[in-house]
Amino acid sequence: xAKVFSITLLYFTTLLIFNFSEAxxxxxxxxxxxxxxxxxxVLNQVKTEFNIFYGHTSHGSQIITGMSMLRDENPIYDFxxxxxxLAISEYGDDLGADGDTSWVPITRDVLNQPGNEINMVVWSxxxxxxxxxEANIGVYLDAFAQLEQEFPNVIFIYMTGHLDGSGIDGNLxxxxxxxxxxxxxxxxxxxDFADIESFDPDGGYYPDGTDAxxxxxxxxxxxxxxxxxxxxxxxxFNCYQKGKVFWWLLARNSGWNAVSAGCGDIxxxxxxxxxxxxxxxxxxxxxxxxxxxxxxxxxxxSGNLNILDVSSLIKYLYKSGxxxxxx
Length: 327
What we know:
327 residues; alpha/beta; Rossmann fold; Type 1 dockerin domain; 2 domains; 11 helices; 42% helix; globular
């Protein structure tokens, strides 16, 4: 009977994992504080794991500028410099406006090339979100989702449009919120371009700002900020912040989480991912090895290890469930 129960339990747990195979990841200003927590081992893993196609024009180049600033500070953030560095293929176009889908066949052509190794696709906006209708933002979202269906082994990164000074009542804010809500409801991965430039490091909120990042000038007048040759349309600190968020996004997609090597890191590998779920299932139901720190497996702080811990871990990792709570 116990064997039948275990097999049945494992069967339904497996179904649960596959049902939650996609995770919502929102890369916005709130994650910048976690940037310095990313271990070197994860950064090195990211550089071998991802091969990125990035379509952008001038505004989108802010991310690349920020990454270059970080590389100047520490070579571990190196990219496009041969073996052992992150590969990013840049394409000189953007998402356009008003339901433009000319970027879709471009994406298909790249991903269908013989020997293609691209496994992450990013497209940024220029100013198009500002005057695009709700219906045409829907066209963008549907087109991205269609590409996800066609290329299930590729990670697609959604994006909001840059600030334009129209504030919380403007079309830009409404359309950005439309994109955010879609990503939350459909377990997508979002680089929240507008949110990053809306907040200073102290949490001050500037919804009426523009792409120039006016608060950056005030902030850097009283704080030490890194410089750059040029940050398109904006202040170098805006680019710097976006570079940090992009590296965070890559680390998060590799399975890293800021609570890694602690609560939920059941196999003690420094990462929080499906391998921890598998380790816990094997321990509970297949006579597998015990966690090195049993408290890291009691993710619901109940004092007992059981299927509820498995369920809590799955929900946290793959459905934006409650934070883990270990003893």
